[in-house]
Target: Response regulatory domain-containing protein
Amino acid sequence: MSDLIRVLIVDDNEDMRGNIRKILSFESRIDVVGEAADGYQAIDMAAKYKPDIVLMDINMPGLDGISATERISLKCPYTSVIVISVQGENEYLKRAMLAGAKEYLIKPFSPEDINQTILNVYERNKERTTEVYAHKVLEQGYVQAPKVITVFSGKGGVGKSLIATNLAVGLAKLHKKVVIVDLDLMFGDVASLFNLKIKETIYHLVQEIERLDSESILSYLVETSSKVRVLAAPIRPEQSEMITGVHVEKIIRLLKETHDYVIVDTPSQLTDPVLTLEQSDFILLVNTLSVPVLRHNKNFLEILKSLSVPTERVRIIINRATLDTGVKIKDVKTALGMELYCLLPEERFVDLSINTGEPLLEMKASSRWSKEMNKLVQQIIAEDERAKSESWIKRFRLGRKRA
Ligand SMILES: Nc1ncnc2c1ncn2[C@@H]1O[C@H](COP(=O)(O)OP(=O)(O)OP(=O)(O)O)[C@@H](O)[C@H]1O
Ligand SMILES: [Mg+2]
Model:
């Protein structure tokens, strides 16, 4: 006898949810695990209950069904979304399928329609899911290629933007396609660190977010002389308010398609958009030899654990590591309980570089800071190579196991 199919019902209309629940109660293979009244609730409940199927209404207050479908498809690869819509919503339906829905049902539908659709989608996805799961199991301990790299610190002013921009330059110098996304949405200065004149920013981009694909998003990027592409932060702080985590998730997903590396610069607060760092392959956690910085970063590591983000993705950096502050390098290791990944020294040309908008790696390529930064670039590329070869070996093993 096969397992029960776990279903989550999402509809803002309570009567509709009740009707669907009633219909499904007559099918012995189906178990309704919950009901949600809007997209946000749906995302939370999908993460919590990990249903096999989500029945998703499209038009709902708060977060609509399309955005919720997109997020659930991304976060819960074992869950299939079936979209429920009324006649005449063809355009929406198309977008829902693009967002990752597996099937759709037009209202009104009969009990046979809904039961059969759920059973079909479940069976269709079972085989694929088993395969994905087998990969996951084999990939435990797998070194993820550092494609999306978020530079973060629990405290401001530690050198995040300096590191993010120069890392981008270093990777671009090695002919990697690099985009840097400024998620310091209120006070971002990536554009200024490259001395760029910006007309369009992430604020303009999100106005068109529903329509964007991996090609059209490129028109919002500005390229620097070092061939780094920049998605700038809004020009005015109040414009940051409308940018949500759902937007940022989509932006990063699209940019990944056309770049080798997506570097994300952040503010020191864990805002909703910044929480998409769950999507990062690497989190470069920037420290200085300062007790408050270490305290905040230790808290941040705890938060990551509570979000189930593996700490293996975190790489510890100490910036201004040559300053005499009373805190020693080994204290950082002890305080954070992690190995150190890179030490960048105090550097007297940093301010000149920031004020002129010329990245230090270009302005003073021979400085000690630039040399250490180049080592960081090499380390990241080496991790990429290692991840590729490990993934190849594991795929090979999986193939042999199946054969
Ligand atoms: N290695 C360094 N040597 C000397 N000064 C440095 C170094 N790194 C950073 N600074 C100083 O720290 C300042 C802040 O750097 P940066 O803007 O990169 O930090 P941030 O973490 O992005 O700050 P915010 O939280 O405000 O975004 C720089 O303007 C510079 O004066
Ligand atoms: Mg900054």
Confidence is low (pLDDT under 50) at residues 133-142.
